[in-house]
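Input.
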Amino acid sequence: MTDRATGASSGGHLRRGLRVVGVALRGAKGPFAVGIGGAVLYAGMTVAASLVLGWITDDVLLATAVAGRVDGTLLGFAVLAILGVALFKAIGVAGRRYGAYVAQYTLQSTHRRLVTRQYLDLPLSWHRRHPTGTLLSNANSDVESAFFLAAPLPMAVGATVLVVVTGVLLAVTDPFLAAVGFSVVPLLAAANWHYQKRMRTAATRAQQGRADVAQTAHESFDAALMVKTLGREDAETRRFAARSEELRDRMVTVGRLRAHFDPIIEALPNVGILLVLVVGSARVRDGALTPGDLVLFAYLFRLLALPIRVFGWMLGEMPRAIVGWGRVERVLGATGRLSWGDEVVTGEGPASTDLQGVGFRYPTAVHDDLSREEPDDATTWTSRGVTDVDLTIEPGRTVAIVGPTGSGKSTIASLLLRLLDPDTGRVLLDGRDLRQVTEPTVSDNAAIVFQDPFLFDDTVRENITLGDDLGDEEVRAAARLARADEFVTALDHGYDTQIGERGATLSGGQRQRIALARALVRRPRLLVLDDATSAVDPTVESEILRGLAESGLDTTVVIVASRLGSILLADESVYVADGRVVAHGPHDQMVRDVEGYRALVTAYTRGPA
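Output.
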């Protein structure tokens, strides 16, 4: 039978559940060994306790009642047996719980790091196809859900041992009575089949609901300025409330299913015990069993209630674990990771960079539901990007890339640092294809500063160094070159001032200058500025660009520029339109010969039409 929501048959569902169990066991072998060892010890001692109880009933209690006197030695042995069994059971419980929870938290911690590492390795094109809220949910709630079943797993192994040993003892003691007791097992199997069938869909929808809530919250917090300025607080509150209510309803559905299933799991073993007592009493009356045998039998069957509950717990968590692991696995198995070569760029001084026949188109998102079984490369493509770009930038030159909005300027800037991989053609750094160099080569030789820089909720110093071991003078020299030292020094705690999330306590221009200092302190051989001074006033922008030219910094500078002042400070300009390089040369020549370039750079100086 096939479940429509997941596309998985009941047998397939079980296989997927066992595969998650296998992943868990392989991922935390040591803790699971401790937990399973403790669980098996507990199971053995539990069976031993039933044997001790049966022995005490027949050979101590009934013997004492018949003899009319207490055998002190026998009673002492009985007490020691009870205490010994209890001690080893306690050791087993401690080992089982310690191993189980260490395994669970180890697996969750490990897979959070794996997911995060994968996020860092996957290209920007992959991230554009998946909303941030979904990815946040994937790294948190999905990982937790995937390994919730790690906690009951050692207990389930111990319960299996308990079932096998108990079943053998029951069958040896009285096969007929054992058959009576185990008559509830088909009922349990039927209840579980019905529960799993309905729970798969409910668990899938609940996990996606968590992702939807995280996505909505992330968007609202990230757009706090827009929400405030446009008075959208009530609308955002209603939007978040709607998502939260959807998640509530889905979780209530999950809880309702558990509420129906758990009482059945609790009740059926007790029904079995009642049947055993009723039939067993009759067999004791007929002389087929001794009272001690019946006590042993009832106690052993009562023990079976615990494994059944454990299996119910495991089976109850399994749909959630399968859905969570499926979403995690889709990330870990995502294709498109950038591959690197083994060539190293070790040149000194400014770098050269070339684009040879480069083409690139942006992917669009097909869906944001990681639980769906569509391949990760099920992607459509937009017409945006660049086509057949040929561009050579000589070492030490300052080049301005100019063009109308949407022409492909930022795409070229991203291609230069391999933030994007070209669909066609090659991007070269000092004559070496970026796909053939080692991973650190690009970051060691090149840096990019964006129009909207990201700053961490940390000090100014840490935002510039990013944890690297850089001296105070290096940091201040880079800040002076970015024209940031003066305003940073004026802050309450200077370079040790906390600047808030995304640099919330700073102006846009100040954030851009700190981001520029962050790039300059690493002394890149190729520096790309993607409208990185757009929020700075023209005077400061001119000082920054002149300072870069006069500083003696051995770097090639590529500026995505829109201001005439920035363009005039460049050695040459590149005009981009409709994703193509239309012209390339000195500014004066471009103004004279290229109509589109002339219209763009003189737009502010022309009067109204």
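The first strand starts at residue 353 and ends at 364.
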